[in-house]
Design a protein that fits this description.
By secondary structure, this protein is α+β, with helices and mostly antiparallel strands. Helices cover 20% and strands 28% of the residues. It contains three helices and twelve strands. The strands form three sheets. Strands 1, 4, 5, 7, 8, 9 and 12 form a seven-stranded mixed sheet that branches. A three-stranded antiparallel sheet has the order 2-3-6. A two-stranded antiparallel sheet has the order 10-11. A hairpin with a 5-residue loop joins strand 4 and strand 5. The chain is globular and about 65 Å long. The relative contact order is 0.17.
Length: 240
């Protein structure tokens, strides 16, 4: 499909549920031999890097995991004209800590792959990256960087639980018994991104109305309408 790249099976990563082991040779942060660096407000060293290069080994690792579990993992890039591309050439460099970015995205991807399979005959996780200057989002006025959206078509997060998803140790009531975990991954990912001067937020999709019909013994029919939300999305925003 034009504009959509589905990764092939990686050959070097193994474990589901853990950050893949990467060495520095797998992390490319610039296209030149000179690495631009600066310190953030926490005195952590940041580099001017390109997220496509930094995250390539992570996507390859999780493509292998997704294939093993019957999940479609799709990566797409969107350029400034809102058209899909098959490469990241249009994405600007941003200030990041490469290893911290890898760990943060791994935590969110790991969650997506674990939850998307719940009662889902066709689980799909997509990762979309685009230049923030092409975004029409009203949630943030900055447009000098890159957006990374990790989206799945799993059971979704109820609105009542949305304020707590980044809270350390919090686990949703509907899924805590069905998926193992300790509830710290999302909060840790958000902390790592904030230390880079970026943002990580939950993006709730709109609700849909599901209609069910029930017949009683008296031959009366009751129509019940319930609102439901399918899917979850998390957006990373990294800045120049």
């Amino acid at each position: 499909t034009d504009g959509v790249l589905e990764f092939t099976h990686g050959d070097e990563f193994v474990t589901y549920g853990f950050l893949p082991n990467n060495n520095n040779n797998n992390v490319k942060t610039t296209t030149t031999s000179v690495v631009q660096q600066r310190q953030d407000n926490n005195n952590d060293l940041l580099e001017m890097g390109f997220v496509g290069d930094i995250l390539e080994p992570i996507f390859s690792a999780y493509q292998a995991v997704a294939t093993e579990h019957g999940i479609r993992l799709i990566l797409s890039y969107r350029n400034n004209n809102n058209n899909n591309n098959d490469d990241d050439d249009d994405l600007p460099g941003v200030w990041v800590s490469p290893k911290s970015l890898q760990e943060a995205v791994s935590n969110v991807l790991d969650n997506a792959l674990k939850y998307v399979v719940l009662s889902n005959p066709d689980p799909v996780v997509t990762v979309e990256m685009h230049d923030l200057s092409s975004s029409s989002s009203e949630s943030n006025s900055r447009n000098d960087g890159v957006s990374i959206v990790v989206r799945d078509n799993g059971p979704g997060i109820p609105s009542s639980e949305a304020p707590y998803v980044f809270q350390r140790g919090y686990r949703g009531e509907q899924t805590r018994e069905r998926v193992p975990g300790d509830g710290i991954g999302l909060g840790f990912a958000q902390t790592l991104i904030h230390k880079m001067g970026g943002d990580l937020e939950l993006v709730l999709p709109p609700t849909t109305t599901a209609t069910t019909t029930a017949s009683s013994a008296e031959n009366s029919t009751n129509v019940v309408e319930e609102e439901e939300r399918v899917g979850t999305a998390f957006e990373f925003r990294l800045y120049r």
